[in-house]
Amino acid sequence: MSNANQRVRANKQSNVTTDTLVSPVTPEEFADYLGLDYEPSDDILLNSFLLTSCSYYIAHMNNELLSRDYTLKFDRYPSQGDSFTGLSPIYANLEPWIDIPLYPVSVITSVDVDDDVATFTDDLSSKPPRVFLENYGQNIVITYTAGYATKSDIPHNIILGINMMAGYLFEHRGACDIGNAAKQSGAMSVWGQNAMILSL
C-alpha cells in the first residue's frame, strides 16, 4: 500500500574554478617529444592538444595539475542514499564528512554554511581529501586550492600520459575522438599508476 511519499530532489552540487587551465608541458617540450623542429608559430596548435589532454586527465582521474582555486557548493549537507517526504518521511543518513572531488588539495580556504562562516577540520592527506564540519546545514560553500605548486611536483607518469594522449591526438587529428585517444595512446594505463584510491 502506498503512503504517497515522494523522493526528495537530489542535492545540487557544483565544483568550479575561474582560473585558466595551464598545461605543465610547454609546446616546445611537446614538439621535442614528437620529434619535431619547434616553431613558435605552432604554439596554438600544439597547446590545443596539450590542454585537451590535461582537461581529460583532470575530469577522469579527479586529479588537478598546476594549482587552481575552486569553489565547491552543495544545496545541503551530503547524505547517503535517498530521503523521502510524506506521511511517513524517511531521512537519509548524513555522510560523516564532505569529500573534496579533486586531489591534491593544498589548503581549504573557507567553509560557509547557511551564509555563515563554519568551524571545520580537514584531512588533506586522504584520497579524496575530507572536510569535517562541527554543525550541519544547507547552502554549503567550500573554497579550496587544488593542484601541484610547480611542474616538478607533478608525478612523472602524469606528464608522460599528457604527452602520450596529446601526441596521439596530434598524429590522428580529425580521425579519432578524445576517449579513444586516451585509451589507444596508453595514457589511461600510465595515469592509472597514480589513480585515486579511496581512503577507509
Give a description of the structure.
Helix content is 28%, strand content 26%. By secondary structure, it is of the alpha+beta class. The chain folds into two domains: 85 residues, no CATH class; 89 residues, no CATH class. The strands form four sheets. The protein has a five-stranded antiparallel sheet, with no helix packed on it. The longest helix has 19 residues. It is elongated and about 60 Å long.
What does this entry show, briefly?
The chain is of the alpha+beta class. It contains five helices and twelve strands. Helix content is 28%, strand content 26%.
Radius of gyration, CA atoms, in whole angstroms: 21 Å
SSE-based structural type: alpha+beta
| Low-pLDDT segments, ≥5 res | 196-200
Taking strands numbered 1, 2, ... along the chain, how are they ordered across the largest sheet?
2-3-12-8-9
Count of beta strands? 12
Shape: elongated
**Number of helices, where a helix is a run of at least 4 consecutive DSSP H or I residues:** 5
Largest sheet: 5 strands, antiparallel
**Could you say how many structural domains there are in total?**
2
Percent in helix: 25-40%
**Separation of termini?**
39 Å
* Multimeric organization: single chain
Summed over residues and divided by their number, the pLDDT gives a mean of 88
Order of helices and strands: EEHHEEEEEEEEEEHHH
